[in-house]
Amino acid sequence: MKILDYNIKKILDSRSNWTIELELYNEKNIGVKSSVPSGKSTGKNEVFNLDPDQAILKAKYIFSKIKNKDFKSQQEFDHFLISLDKTVNKSYLGGNTILAFSYCFAKLNAYFKHIELYDYFNNLVNLKNLKIKPKMPYLFVNVINGGLHAGNNLKFQEYLIIPKTNDILKAINLARILYLELGKELKKIKGNNAINIGDEGGYAPNFKNDFEPFEIISKILKKLNLDKEFYFGLDAAANSINLSNDKLEKFYLKLIKKINLIYLEDPFAEEDFEQFKKLKLKLKNVYICGDDLTTTNINSFKKADSENSINSVIIKPNQIGTISETIEAIQFAKQKNWWIIVSHRSGETNDDLIADLAYGVAANGFKLGAPARGERVAKYNRLLEIANQ
Questions:
Q1: What CATH number should be reported for the domain holding residue 191?
Q2: Whether residues 284 and 315 fall in one domain
């Protein structure tokens, strides 16, 4: 497949920051678009994103090198981009610039092969003979925002509800019901401003303490007779929290006694593999997940494996910069039997590619924010579209 033309421009992301939207055209003048999100809570080993104006200049250079070349596969295309960059963190061309091209190539190649994008991703992940079939993930729904994602007094970043079903219509409806009832309850007990929302669509009022959000959610679920329908999760994003490891661990242990918490993401600082391991050994029935710890980077995955630090991992393509490297990370995690959670970013766009990725690689979970705000809803609606095919 050859690339014959391109167009790139600046668009707004969900935090009103500039990002890039790229269009690529093949030899049949078929075009696709892709846009790149950004995170506020980031690991230091993520790829380097260029300012959008610089990214636009680098895109012109990339296009001059790929125009009319016949690329046989996603891997060949992505590795060519990596070879053009020649830096460890993609700082020359920009991780965001490279990812926009990688995304577009995947979409064009799926079209070229007359297959759905999720089947394209499924074919890629099965190149190591994993024999994985596409499957709907469990939804990890961020209904209360804190930390860097909100202007409230919560130290912890994401209070997650997880419907106990991967029947996507049922899961979305359960999440929707809880989200709307939570808004009503917060407004009643905390006033009109309580339904202000954070970066990922979750409510973001002040609370009495860091336990109260789950206490309120639990109360609502019991009232609705839905308390058996959900698990709970927490993205601590502890890299941004000024607490000792001992205080953090005491909070987690106390929280687990109170609620049915099965998922805990980034409970400690981003390079504290040993502390992750200690907590994982204590909490046998909780998925201890790496995000800032692992940054969708195969080398960090290998270190986490050798240190026995995690049993679950976040997958964010824009942490590493290409589809091929993302797939390589997923393949490694699958072989280690880790839970795989495909995730959005706090600064999102309406691009719904990650919904196809989550379904196509049979991710265990999908973090996609609250069922509100257009950039989040785009992912929910894409899952519904897939389910209805």
A1: 3.20.20.120
A2: yes
Where do we find the tokens 């809880």?
A: 178
Which two structure tokens, joined as six digits, stand for 356? 């196809």
Residue closest to 348 by CA, chosen among 9, 16, 49, 53:
16
Q: Are residues 300 and 235 in the same domain?
A: yes
User: Does 378 fall in a domain?
Assistant: yes
Residue 122 within any structural domain of the chain = no
What is the value of pTM for the model shown? 0.97
The DSSP line for 73-102 is SHHHHHHHHHHHH-SSS-TTT-HHHHHHHH
pLDDT, tens digit, for every residue of 97-125? Answer: 999 999 999 999 999 999 999 999 999 99
Token output for 376: 């989040």
Task: Select which of 158, 200, 270, 325 is catalytic.
Answer: 200
Is 316 annotated as catalytic? yes
pLDDT > 70: percent of the chain? 100
Residue 23 is among the residues annotated as catalytic for this protein: no
Helix (H, G, I), strand (E, B) or coil at 349: coil
Q: Provide the token pair at 176.
A: 């929707």
Q: How are beta strands 287-290 and 230-235 bridged, if at all?
A: unpaired
Q: Each residue of 25-43: pLDDT tens digit? A: 999 999 999 999 998 878 8
Alpha-carbon separation of residue 110 from 30, 93, 353, 383 (angstroms): 12, 25, 12, 18
End-to-end CA distance of the chain: 27
**pLDDT tens digits, one per residue of 132-174:** 999 999 999 999 999 999 989 999 999 999 999 999 999 999 9
Domain count, the chain: 2
| Of 58, 155, 280, 316, catalytic | 316
* Strand ranges across the sheet with 18-26: 3-12, 18-26, 31-35
Classified as helix, coil or strand, 1 is coil
Q: What is the DSSP string of 261-305?
A: EEEEE--S-TT-HHHHHHHHHH-TTSEEEESTTTTT-HHHHHHHH
Q: Which ranges of the chain does DSSP label H, i.e. alpha helix?
A: 52-66, 74-85, 95-112, 117-125, 168-190, 212-223, 245-258, 273-282, 298-306, 317-320, 323-335, 353-360, 374-387
pLDDT in the model for residue 225? 98
Among 80, 99, 100, CA closest to 34: 100
Whole-angstrom Cα distance, residue 130 to residue 132?
6
CA distance to 216, 292, 353, per residue, from 99 (Å):
40, 19, 12
